[in-house]
Amino acid sequence: MSDSINNPARTIGSTEELLAYSLALETEAVERFNDLADQMETHHNYEVADLFRKLAKIEGLHIENVNQAATGKQLPSLLAWEFEWDDGESPEGGAMQDAHYLMQPWHAIELAMQGEKRAVAFFRHVAETTSDDKVLKMALELVEEEEEHVALLQQWQERFPKPDDGWDEDLDPPAMLE
Amino acid sequence: MTAPSACALIQPKEYKSGVKPVWCPGCGDFGVLGSITKALSGLQIRPENAAIISGIGCSSRMPTYLSTYGFHGVHGRALALATGLKVARPDLTVIATGGDGDGFSIGGNHFMHTCRRNPDMTYIVMDNQVYGMTKGQASPTTEPNWEKGKLTPGGTGINPFQPLVIALASGANFIARCSSADSNGTARVIMEAIRHPGFSLVQILSPCVTFRPEQREWKNMLIPAPVVATSDPAQAARRLLTDEGLFTGILYVGNRPAYQPTLEASIDDVAKLDEEFQL
Q1: What is the ipTM of this complex?
Q2: How many CB pairs under 8 A join A and B?
Q3: Between A70, A88, A101, which is nearest B25 by CB?
Q4: Of A32, A53, B140, B177, which is the most exposed, with the fewest CB atoms less than 10 Å away?
Q5: What is the count of structural domains for chain A?
Q6: Which of A93, A94, A178 minimises the CB distance to B150?
Q7: Splitting chain B (279 residues) into consecutive groups of 10 residues, what average pLDDT does each group show?
Q8: CATH label of the domain that carries residue A61
């Protein structure tokens, strides 16, 4: 699963802009986790579906936090492709291709954790490149928040053993070559 | 952007029908679904003003998952259906979707002649170089040495179909290649394709993780085209014939007028034709 660093291609110059990025990041995360939960339900992997649904709910709480911080501010209006993420996708929005119908809770948490790590790297890059003190303060707070998420997910993951190689082998595949 | 609750714009998720896709987890088509919703949202096209038309195959399920009008049609006939719809309802934004088998084999002839006719619509082909729904046979775009198809042990041994080259030679007015792994970039290209008059072809390399798992690597292999789109067909042809299928972006933007016949004469003709069948 990918763990590439995801930095914006340019510096962020205002807290409004940073909040717009943060809102987009969390919104994409909610949608992605709900999409993954739907996929797992469709393929009868209910344990992982429930986990993705729970992750979507948690990310939804983050959206509420961002909205609270944005109260009274006019955020810039950006289309999905106008956000200058380093590889085009928001840090917590990608990795759909890493899903597998036999994936286990360990994999789901790993997928989520890699997204959180990319978010840490993103906000850290913002903090390191901005010349605005307010942006710096907000970016550091967001780094701290995302690091808490990483730590929490690490604790979750420890509850599940890492699956052995061959975890994706299906002895009765639904789409066997004829 | 303001906080979502205060936003009156149509958001991408509002273009989803709520039907859960049955695609395999990891399938590139999920990314394309997201790109289409983002493009429609970017243009703020109301769902009732758009129609998604498809043929048969995994990717042809797309109309089911969108809240626009849709028609899941006959194998290979998406473009014929879509052209008819566009002629009858030029006010609609018409998008045809499908896969490489549906579009370039079963529908190959329709593909060439739709490029030639140049109706004002967009054709999104999710190309995974395999027939996925029928469990992994070589398709028109499969490389000649792919040996895992049971019907073609040792590979097909024949050159793959070159959809962008054929489209250019046949008269398509907008030609682009994208990656399903780049959902946001693909959304931007789809938006430009819809905006551009005439027939727009968007080939999206969309991995089949079940029968072509090695295609997961596409996300690391595809690179943005190092040149801007050209309106010169000869230059576009040279580029398309030499790029090995790995450059993404808008590659050709033509300026042919779109096909849009007047309807009144046709209606009179149909009425006269009908008279001949009166008993």
Answers
A1: 0.88
A2: 103
A3: A101
A4: A53
A5: 1
A6: A178
A7: 56 95 96 97 97 97 98 97 96 98 97 98 98 93 93 94 97 97 95 98 96 92 90 95 90 96 72 79
A8: 1.20.1260.10
